[in-house]
Specification:
The protein is an alpha/beta fold. Helix content is 44%, strand content 14%. The chain has 3 domains: 2-177, Ferritin (Up-down Bundle), CATH 1.20.1260.30; 202-494, Vaccinia Virus protein VP39 (Rossmann fold), CATH 3.40.50; 500-544. The strands form 3 sheets. An 11-stranded mixed sheet has the order 2-1-5-4-3-8-9-11-10-12-15. The chain has a two-stranded antiparallel sheet with strand order 6-7. It has a two-stranded antiparallel ribbon with strand order 13-14. A hairpin with a 2-residue loop joins β6 (298-299) and β7.
Amino acid sequence: MVELEFQQKTKALIDSLKNICAHYGLGNDGNEFKIITQTFLYKFLNDKFAYEAKQIDEKVASSEKWEEALVAMSEDELEMLQLQMGGDTARLKPHHFISYLFGQQNAPDFAKLFDDTLRDIALTNNDVFAVKTDGGTKVVLFDRVSEYISDESKRDAFCRAIINKLVEFSFERIFTQKFDFYATIFEYLIKDYNSNSGGKYAEYYTPHAVARIMAAILVPADQQGKVKNVSCYDPSAGSGTLLMNVAHAIGENRCSIYTQDISQKSSNLLRLNLILNNLVHSIPNVIQGNTVLHPYHKDGKDLKKFDYIVSNPPFKMDFSDFRNDLDSKENKERFFAGIPKIKPKAKDKMEIYQLFLQHIIHSLKPGGKAAVVVPTGFITAQSGIDKGIREYLVKHKMLAGVISMPSNIFATTGTNVSILFMDGSNKGKVVLIDASNLGEKIKDGKNQKTVLSAEEEQRVIDTFNAKQAVEDFSVAVSYDEIEAKNYSLSAGQYFDVKIEYVDITPEQFAKKMHGFTSNLDSLFIQSRELETEIKKQLAGLKYE
């Protein structure tokens, strides 16, 4: 009940921030998401600091106003307090507190004070909270928020409205909540800003069912709490849905996350997601850049290898502007099955997922595990790069299985998708599941999507992890059987063909045969009549 109440209050805060933006002409503006996410984050970090301070210092905890107790501290005392705080807590100074800005809101140039405060927090915490680009530039935590208001005369009022809203509510009581709480809040926070809206790589939003299934298969229940000191990677991370689920299954303090994504917006959202989920220690590993052209994470000159990799890469897009740059000697090993050719009449249909998939295979540690969303056509293509990748996985015995998902599992794309699971330690049976008939179709705005029930999700997970063969649903096959089927990874091609045998008497058999013969005679007569009619018509046309 308490959790639901705070969830509703948190969502109300997000709604009120959106209303302020709309009131000042920024509703659905391209910069609205920056204002919403950054002011929300400022509030979150402010309250997280208060929560941590109260856990450590009795004076702060017992003070009627925690801010006043901190202001009364000497610089040395404040520094000692901050040293005892966890690495997930931003370092704040008394003039950074929301209460301080609240008390200064009628000062001249309040918007400048507001912006200066955010920028100072960003610079003070740059070493831990900054995202890097693949060129090494640091993307700081906060921008100058008021500058998104084009009318300078309204900036002070805009920032006052934000501060007055932030001061009304405290996050302190939610810091004991679990992963699912933050996942729900994060989804609500970004729901208007993380659509498949085009761009160089569109931000593909991965449904929670897909994320949960991937995490529960990569880290089965009996391994949770036992895996530690591992690396998790997503080369097309988006806002981090897949990684958050895997990190939660492993344990946030037992893994380090590494990402790359070309989208600046995605990298900022991912940073916010890491902060909400106690994964601040991984923020320095968040890279904004082109993974395919400039992979950032390396050990010396070689690509870094990871224990776990998850990805929902873009499927098709125009990368003709850098396609030929990939066709180099140093990329021969990484793109072992080939690089898609430029399509003269359909450049936007270039199969970029094939590059991501090969990059992932090349980035996996021996014995490592990966789960990748692919178009279902990948699992049966009879030639080309797709087949070459499948052959490689079979030859090197690094497949765990495939789950073919229902159509419209992604509301934003009609492409049928499958989840490809790799496991370098799996030398035995490979699990193939046809889950295409599961789920319920519902309307999602203008689109239709398929939603799996919790029971259906669990059925898929349990069947896969147990390597069960279930009639018309799943098979467990050997690498040799896959090779014999021309490397097809479609479960349906391995299902037994059912032939029903019915006992009948000789009289019944004769009657059925007579029926078949009569039908054939009738069809022959009809075909001869039709042939005669056509000849007559053709003869008539000839003499006209």
